[in-house]
Amino acid sequence: MMRTHTCGEIRPSMIGHKVVLAGWARLIRDHGGVMFIDLADRYGTSQVVFDPEAIEDQDKRRRLREIVDRIGREFVLRVEGIVRPREPDTEDPRNPTGEVEVAISDIEILSESEVPPFELIEQKESLLANEDVRMEYRFLDLRRTKMMNCLVVRNKVASIVRNFLWKKGFLEIETPCLVRSTPEGARDFLVPSRLHPGKFYALPQSPQLYKQLLMIGSADKYFQLARCFRDE
After folding, report:
1. Are the C-beta atoms of 108 and 123 separated by less than 8 Å?
2. Taking Cα atoms as reference points, which of 3, 110, 109 lies closest to residue 46?
C-alpha cells in the first residue's frame, strides 16, 4: 500500500495508530542523531521523526540510518510509523497537523531529487526566486501551497459555473482550436500545416463564428469556458 493517509490528515484522534504516508521531504533537521523531516504533499505537511534508539533490531536500525542519511530536500519518501503527540512546547499551531508527529518504523526513498533552485517552504517566501526561475521550474513552483490554492479556486469557480448553467439546460460544447485566420483587434497566432506546406492554421481569438453556427444548428443554449489567443 503506497499510503493510508495524506500528509494533511494526521490528527490527535489518530494517536497510537499506524499510518503510511508518501510525499516530498520539504525540510530536514538533525537534532543529535534524531532526524526530523517535514513530509509534504498537496494536502498538507506532517512531521515524521527517525529516532534510532527506538529501533530495537540492530540490522533494521543500521539500514534505516543509511536511508535517512541519504535523504535530501524534495526526495520522494514513503514512511510507515505510529502517530504520537509532539513533545511539549514543540507544537506548531499554524499547521493543522502540528499537535502530532509520526515516529518512523520504516522508510523508503521512492525517488531522489537534485537540490531545488529555490525554497518551497511557505515561511521562507522572502527567499523565493524571481518569476523567470519559477516559470522554468513550474513543476516545483506548483508544489507551493499558495500556487496550488490558485488552481483549486479556479477549479471550484469553473465547477460552480458549469453546475449553474447545466441546471438551466445549457450544453457545454467545445469549439475548434485550429481555425482559419479571421483578423480582429489583434494579430493571430499561426500554426503551420504539416499536410499542406506553406499554409497555416490560426488559434482563435474568440469562438464567435462557431457560437453563431451552433445557434443556427439548434444549440440555442450553449456555453464553454473558452481559451482565446490574441497576439497583442
Report:
1. no
2. 3
Q: For 59-63, which contacts have Cβ atoms below 8 Å and span 24 or more sequence positions?
A: none
Half-sphere exposure of 99 (CA within 13 A, CB side): 8
User: Cell for 13?
Assistant: 484522534
Please determine, for residue 111, whether its predicted confidence score (pLDDT) is greater than 70: yes
Smallest Cα–Cα separation from 143: which of 1, 26, 4, 8?
Answer: 26
Whichever domain contains 58, its CATH number is 2.40.50.140
pLDDT in tens, 11-37: 999 999 999 999 999 999 999 889 999
**In a shared domain, residues 106 and 20:** yes
pLDDT tens track for 128-163: 888 999 999 999 999 998 899 999 999 999 999 999
Nearest-angstrom CA–CA distance, 47 and 67: 17
85 touches 99 (CB < 8 A): yes
Maximum Cα–Cα distance across the chain: 77
Identity of residue 23: G
| Mean of the per-residue pLDDT values of the chain | 93
Distances (CA, A) of 222 to 105, 120, 174, 194: 56, 42, 10, 32
Strand partners, 21: 79
Q: Is 61 part of a structural domain of the chain?
A: yes
What's the rounded mean pLDDT across residues 155-184? 94
97 in helix, strand or coil?
coil
Q: What is the pLDDT of residues 187-202, one digit of tens each?
A: 899 999 999 999 999 9
Domain residues for the domain of 204 are 169-231
